[in-house]
Structure formats: structure tokens, C-alpha cells
UniProtKB/TrEMBL annotation:
The keyword Glycoprotein does not apply. It comes from Paenibacillus lactis. It is an enzyme of class 4 (lyase). Transmembrane segments: none annotated. InterPro entries: PS_Dcarbxylase, PSD-B. GO terms for molecular function: phosphatidylserine decarboxylase activity. This is phosphatidylserine decarboxylase.
Length: 281
């Protein structure tokens, strides 16, 4: 009975008008008085913030804060893909013919997640990370690879929470919530950075709408309140770091694994390198 009640409350809380009201308050100057309590409740490392606390004009401005320069190191391993966010890994693994398996007990098809995008075929046997940002975390999103935008899409949807209860008991939260998707082409293929909105998130914003290419670690976007990033790699182009497991906490810029050409292209590349005929990676 308790679960049914909680589920009903969660369904009701997904209404856009409620999220809009909470979002409006979080942008107001009045909300800045809640910043100290917010820091205390969620044990936020406020010393990492770019500005002094009194300089933030609203709770939302503090929530989407930048960090002091140099606090996140970007991994320098050759052909690295790094975490775009500070987060906990709630799912990871090979995409099984278009399905991301066992995300909090649920399976997700990339067809639903990417809303029938024609790019789906690039990811049917790729690799996926689901990265959950708690209220404690830094909420700026950075480029996981060096590359160029080849497409972006904004998908309107619900605003369900993405906490453990909602992810476990509400059907297909990641595919039903608002999503901002950036497809980035790198040397060996492409990645999809799927930014998923959540309860009380007034919006997901690009750091600079005019920017269409990034170096690894460059600022890409930010959440106005907590949520999740789903990171997809193209089929056959990624090998994950061997020690990562479910529940691992990662920092922005931390190595997730290595990008490489698909197996057939790698064989051709190795062959032409041996003959010193190769003109591309």
C-alpha cells in the first residue's frame, strides 16, 4: 500500500505546472536564504564553489554553480572518454541489440530513449553509462570527448524524479522525462550525451548555444536541479575501464574507458600502418 501511495504521489508530482512553480521559486532572490540549509542538508562541499556564498542571487544559481579552476583534472590518457559529470554509476554495460539492460531493474530501448532518431542504428551494439547526479553533486556537464556536434535534439516530456524509488517503480522514467541530446563526432565514431531532466528541473541548458565543437572536458551544459546523464558510445568503438562497477562514484574528467576504431576499421588501419600507407587514424 505504501509503495502504491508513493507511486501515485510521484506520478502527480510529474505535472509540469508544479515543477514550473518550484522552478520559479528557485530562481527568485527570496530562495537565496535557503542556500545555507541546502548546503547543510546535502553536505555540499561549498568551498569548491567558484564564488562566495553571498554572491549567489538564488538557490538555482548556487545549484548550477561552477567550481574553482583546477578542482577537476581531465584524464590525459590517449583516446580517453571521460565522465562528463560528477555522478554515481547506476547502470553500465554493452547495449544488447538496442536495449540497455537492468537500469534499476528495468530495461530501456535506445529507440525510446532517443525518440526514434535516425542515429539509433549507430548505437544498437554500443556501450552505455547511466550517471546519476544527486543534489550534493556539481551539476555542470562537460564534453566526454574531443569532437564536433553533428546533431542536437530537445525532447519535451515529464519531470519525474530520478531517485531510486522512481527509477525502480515508475515505468521508463529516462525515456519519458524531458531530454536534451547532443551527438558528438570524435576520431573513431560518435557519442550521444543524453541529459535527462527531473522533478523540479525548470530546464536543461547549454552553456553556450553557439558552441558546436569541444575539447575533452570543455563545459557543455548544465542542469537547473539534479538529474541523470545517459552516455552512449557507437557500436564497437569503446572499451570500458576494467575496475568500474555499479555504484562507483566518478568525478568529471575521470577516465571511463578508451575509444578506438570499430574492429574492421582497426584491422585495415593496422595493415596500412605496417605498409606506411595510412593517411587517417
Amino acid at each position: 500500500m505504501a509503495k502504491r501511495l508513493l507511486r501515485l504521489m510521484t506520478e502527480l508530482s510529474s505535472r509540469k505546472w508544479l515543477s514550473h512553480l518550484v522552478g520559479q521559486f528557485s530562481h527568485s532572490r527570496l530562495s537565496r536564504y535557503l542556500i545555507p540549509a541546502f548546503i547543510r542538508i546535502y553536505q555540499i562541499p561549498a568551498h569548491e564553489a567558484e564564488k562566495e556564498l553571498h554572491e549567489y542571487r538564488s538557490l538555482n544559481e548556487f545549484f548550477s554553480r561552477r567550481l574553482k579552476l583546477g578542482l577537476r583534472a581531465i584524464d590525459t590518457t590517449a583516446d580517453a572518454m571521460v565522465s562528463p559529470v560528477d555522478a554515481t554509476i547506476t547502470a553500465m554495460g554493452t547495449i544488447n541489440t538496442g536495449t540497455i539492460l537492468n537500469v534499476k531493474g528495468q530495461d530501456y530501448t535506445i529507440e525510446e530513449l532517443l525518440a526514434q532518431s535516425p542515429r539509433i542504428e549507430n548505437y544498437v551494439n554500443g556501450y552505455a553509462f547511466v550517471l546519476y547526479l544527486s543534489p550534493t553533486d556539481y551539476h555542470r556537464i562537460h564534453a566526454p570527448v574531443t569532437g564536433v556536434q553533428i546533431e542536437r535534439e530537445h525532447l519535451k516530456g515529464k519531470v519525474y524524479p530520478v531517485n531510486d524509488f522512481a527509477m525502480t517503480h515508475i515505468r521508463s522514467v529516462l525515456s519519458r522525462n524531458e531530454r536534451l541530446i547532443t551527438y558528438i563526432k570524435h576520431d573513431f565514431g560518435e557519442v550521444a550525451v543524453v541529459k535527462v531532466g527531473a522533478l523540479n528541473v525548470s530546464s536543461i541548458r547549454y552553456a553556450d548555444e553557439s558552441v558546436t565543437k569541444w575539447q575533452i572536458g570543455d563545459e557543455l551544459a548544465y542542469f537547473e536541479f539534479g538529474s541523470t546523464v545517459v552516455l552512449l558510445t557507437e557500436s564497437g568503438t569503446f572499451t570500458p575501464r576494467g575496475d568500474l562497477t555499479l555504484g562507483t562514484t566518478v568525478k568529471m574528467g575521470e577516465l571511463l574507458g578508451i575509444l578506438h576504431p570499430p574492429a574492421d576499421k582497426k584491422q585495415k588501419r593496422d595493415a596500412c600502418l605496417e605498409q606506411e600507407l595510412c593517411t587517417e587514424k
